[in-house]
Amino acid sequence: MNAPTLPAIAILLLAGGLASAQSPLFSSRVEGVRVDVLATQNGRPIPGLGPADFEVRDNGVVQTIDLVNVGDVPVNAVLTLDVSDSVSGPRLASLQRAGNALLDGLTRDDFAALVTFNQMVVRQVPLTRQVEPVREALGQAQGFGDTALADASLGAMLLGDTDAGRTLIVIFSDGVDTASVTRPELVLETARRVNAIVYAVSTSGETPRFLRDLAAATSGRVLDIGRTGDPGPAFLEILQEFRRRYLVTYTPAGVDKAGWHKLEVRVKRSGARVQARTGYFSSQR
Amino acid sequence: MCRVGRARRTPLAIVVALLAFTCALEAGAQGRGWDSTFIEQWVSALETHVPGTLDAPLAGTAAWDTDDLRKLWRDIHVLLTLVVAPRTTRFSVPPLLFETGPRSRERVWFGLKKEEREVFEELATRVRRRGVTSVAHRAAILHTDILTRASSIAAPSDAAGPATRWFIGDGTGIGSTGQSLHWEIARRVLTAVEPDPRRDVFVRDWYRATVAMGQATEYFDAMQMKQALLLFPDDSELLLLAGAEREAFATPLFQAFAKSLDGSARLTGIESADAELNAASSFYRRALAARPEFPEARVRLGRVLTMQAHYADAVGLLRQALSADLDASQKYLALLFLGDALEGAGDPAAALESLEQAAAIAPRSRAPYLGIARLSRERGDLKRTVSSLDRALADTAVEEVAEPMWVYRALPGLRRASLVDELRARAAADRP
Q1: Which of A74, A264, A267, B88 has its CA 20 to 30 A from that of B104?
Q2: Which is nearest to B218 in space by CA: B185, B182, B272, B254?
Q3: pLDDT > 90 fraction of chain B, expressed in percent and rounded
Q4: For the segment B233-247, what is each residue's pLDDT rounded down to a tens digit?
Q5: Alpha-carbon distance B50 to B59, whole Å?
Q6: Quick one: closest CA in A to B256, which residue?
Q7: What's the whole-number mean pLDDT along residues B153-162?
């Protein structure tokens, strides 16, 4: 979402290579701003929208839309799973099945990564097109320890923060944060700046406010499946919904480049509802 | 009036204790069929128990059930009354120290039968001979040892008793047990210390040690804390522990637990997160007022002020703390918190530097690297972002990570874990 400068992208390529040989290639479209948009009508995604159907205001200035993609941009799915003490036994097994179901839904062009967390946040597998290592790590997960939800969210967002493809962070947690070091407000601040959409699956019965705020900050959503719910259907619903989101690209014009940009996105259809970021931060001058 | 405790039932579970305070003791219930066994065995146990060991006197006392302990409570009160006032003929058993239920004001007066009085007078003579203060010290250690060395056989209170211990996990109660009367008996006996328990170093150190011992296992006993502060309101160590307790209560873990209960503040004593942070801040400030050179209190207050968004004050305090001679873990925490405060104060470059210093002190830690990764990204240093993220999210065995923040709530207790053993040694040296 942010619009890094050309030198920054060069560093990003290098950094990506350091992180993993299997990291996705990064886009060279550095001057554009990409806005991930979920457009719905009567609660259902609207198909077939093009550039003329959207209106984007950047700091109040109407922008010319260059491109609208849907479904054809590879997904970077970062599975971020709570493996604390309370997620063990049958719940862990259902979580593992849900993770595998989501992996089944990825295409050959998509990437997946696995982050697990209790009091310790661990990148089990970096972004990769090969899902087998992800499945293997998922199968080896064990439930123990406390819950560092904010730390894990931050780690996952930074891990998935790339200009290539579209990053979907799927966070599963069954309880409150008991162990994070990072203050939630700092994580939310990062959420407003990174190029990732957070969907959260909560089983707490009463979704923690942090998760709701995090999803809202990235234009994602929280699915509360209750204390005994199976996360499998929720994971699949998330992936299906994510694939129906539009990626609206424009080149900012008529606005100062540096700083926070307020975004307003609408679909020019009666009754259409839009879920998109409320802004982005650019360091470009 | 309530009490809240928190501890780990297992290394990964949590216990919370709270008191409902509705059950006054049956003051004169033993008038008929009084059994001298309990008070006689108790006095003998005080005289013969070797502090810190699971010996026969300890095991015998630990095996008593709640009814036995209630009888003992009554008898101890009679005994201690006769020790200081031998001519007393009418007695009334006081309520438990914090009891505020409607029956707590009921006082039943009773006398002693001849044979009963003879037993008490003989025991009172033994206590006076050894000194009531020495006996009280040894009693406190005896009951502490029961709860720490013989907890598996120590009887909890019945469900309607003075305390309930709640196990909590992921922010909700997952079970409860009764709270043992042993703590209450130890507190009661220590009130008999002469000339004044408030001027007795052993009493002060017993409260320091037992509160710290609880906190080391994340067991927060607000009643013990409250009685400690009633006796020693200006003790910097106790004030620090009190601040740590309230800081813990401000965390999402305790907040979610409190909200999961109806009438949470009344039942648990846990207030809102803001109120708990205010309380923590107040205790830390009092600790610093009592002992201006107390870097541990300064470090923790700095964190609380950051949580309260008082960034400039936090920066000043933490820098002041860092100018003192801190041990490695305190220095690490101070730098970590300073990084957070500096970022809040609008100086991300200095924040990054502080986090890097923290990471240098504790290279096997995790916490600084997430912050470094985040701040590096903000600055466009993507190479540093990735390398720090690699460290923060590395797939390392848990036991190979040394992260003080994982035990932050327990840290003041852990740092004082040897106090109980020191007290035991002092009590052993004072053996009659």
Answers
A1: B88
A2: B254
A3: 62
A4: 999 999 999 999 999
A5: 12
A6: A176
A7: 58
Q: State the Cα–Cα distance between residues B334 and A91, nearest whole angstrom.
A: 39
Residue A85: its chain B contacts at CB < 8 A?
12-13, 169-170
SS (H, E, C) A21-55: CCCCCCCCCCCCEEEEEEEEECCEECCCCCHHHEE
CA-based nearest distance B309→chain A, Å? 11
Among candidates B340, B374, B401 on the partner chain, residue whose Cβ is nearest the Cβ of A154: B374
* Residue type (1 letter), B307: M
Phi-psi label, residue B346: left if phi above 0, alpha if psi -120 to 50, beta otherwise: left
**Paired tokens of B243:** 């601040």
Phi/psi zone of residue A130: left (φ > 0), alpha (ψ -120 to 50 degrees), beta?
Answer: beta
Report whether pLDDT(B24) > 50.
no
- The C-alpha atoms of residue A36 and residue A243 are separated, in whole angstroms, by 11
Closest CA to B329 of B402, B404, B399, B400: B404
Nearest CA in chain B to A174: B170
Q: How far apart are CA A83 and CA A95, in angstroms?
A: 9
Convert the pLDDT of each residue in A213-249 to its tens digit.
999 999 999 999 887 788 999 999 999 999 999 999 9
Q: Cβ B380–A11 below 8 Å, yes or no?
A: yes
In chain A, what residues touch B403 (CB-CB under 8 Å)? 119-120
What's the token pair of residue B382? 């993507």
Sequence letter at residue B264: S
**DSSP string spanning B375-389?**
HHHHTT-HHHHHHHH
What does chain A look like in DSSP terms, one character per residue?
Answer: -----HHHHHHHHHHHHHH-TTPPPPPS--S-EEEEEEEEETTEEPPS--GGGEEEEETTEE--EEEEEES-SPEEEEEEEE-STTS-THHHHHHHHHHHHHHHT--TT-EEEEEEESSSEEEEEEEES-HHHHHHHHHT----S---HHHHHHHHHHHT--SSSEEEEEEEESS---S--S-HHHHHHHHHHSS-EEEEEE-SSS--HHHHHHHHHHT-EEEE--TT--HHHHHHHHHHHHHT-EEEEE---SS--SEEEEEEEEESSTTEEEE--SEEEE---
**B386 vs A176: CB contact, 8 Å cut-off?**
no
- CA distance linking residue B354 with residue B250, whole number of Å: 25
How far apart are the C-alpha atoms of A167 and B14, rounded to whole Å?
A: 36
Please tell me the distance in Å from A240's CA to the nearest CA on chain B: 29
- Which run of H or E residues covers position B167? strand B164-169
Residues in chain A within 8 Å Cβ distance of B169: 85-86, 175
Tell me if chain A has a CB within 8 Å of the CB of B383.
yes
> In chain B, which residues have their Cβ closer than 8 Å to the Cβ of A5?
380
φ and ψ at residue B273, rounded to 5 degrees: -60, -40
Q: How far is A162 from chain B (nearest CA, A)?
A: 11
Q: Are A208 and B252 inside 8 Å of each other by CB?
A: yes
Please state, in angstroms and as integers, the Cα–Cα distance from residue B414 to each residue in A49, B52, B419, following that order: 61, 18, 10
For residue A121, give the nearest of B256, B371, B392 by CB distance.
B392
Chains A, B: CB contacts within 8 A come to 117
Q: Give DSSP secondary structure letters for B116-156.
A: HHHHHHHHHHHHHHH-HHHHHHHHHHHHHHHHHHSTTTSPP
Structure tokens at B78: 């009679």
Round to whole Å and give the CA distance between B196 and A128: 70
Q: What is the dihedral of CA A85, A89, A95, A100, to 10 degrees?
A: 130
pLDDT at B107 over 90: no
The residue among B377 and B70 whose pLDDT is bigger is: B377
Q: Chain B contacts of A123, Cβ < 8 Å?
A: 389-390, 393-395
Instruction: Provide, as residue numbers in chain B, all residues whose Cβ is less than 8 Å from the Cβ of A84.
Output: 170
Fill in the DSSP letter of residue B217: T
